[in-house]
Amino acid sequence: MKKWLLILLYILIMLLAFIYRDPILEFMQQHDSFSVLLMLSALLALFPIIPYKLVIAALGFAYGTFWAAVISWLGTMIAAAVIYALVRYVFREQGRRYLSKINSLDTFTTWIEAHPFTSVAAGRLMPIVPQMAVNVFAGVASVPFWTFTLASGLGKIPGIFLYAFLGGNLTRRPLLSGIIITTYILFLAIMVLQYRKSTRRDPK
Length: 204
What we know:
The protein is mainly α. 83% of the residues lie in helices and 0% in strands.
C-alpha cells in the first residue's frame, strides 16, 4: 500500500510540475541562489517534465558554461542517487517490469552484470540508453552504490558540459560550437563501436 502511495505522489508532483513548468523555468532564470538552483535542477531531473538537456542549456545561457555544468551535474547526481535507492530498497519488482519494456537494454543487461563500472559510465555517455533506465537497472542489479555513483559522475560530465556550453555559446560562437558538437558525435560513435565489439567478444 505504501508503495502505491509513493507512486501516486510521484505522479501528482510530476503533473503539477508539468502544469507549472514555464513559471519554474522563469524562476530558475531570475534567482541566483546556488542552493535554490541546485534544488530545482535536482527536482527537474527527478521529475522529467521537460528534457533535462533544455534545463542544462537554459542554465548555460543564464549563468555560463562552468556554473551551469556544476549545478546540472550535482542536480542530476542527486536525482540518480534517489532513484537508485528507491529501486534497490523499495521498488525492485516495479523496476524489473519497467526494464522489461526497454528493448535497447537487451544486450546492455548482460554487459552491466559483467562490467558494472564500465557499463554504467558507458550508459551515461550513449544516447541510445535511457538515463532513467541506467538508474533503475543499477538498483535492480544491486550495483554497489559507490561504483554506480563514480561511474555515473564521470559518464555524465561530457554531455552536461556540451549542453551547458551550447546554451550560452551556440549563437555567439557558432564555429566553435560546431567543432565541439562534431567532436562529441565522433566520440559517441567510437564509444558505440567499442561497446559493440566488447559485447561480441565477451557476451557474458
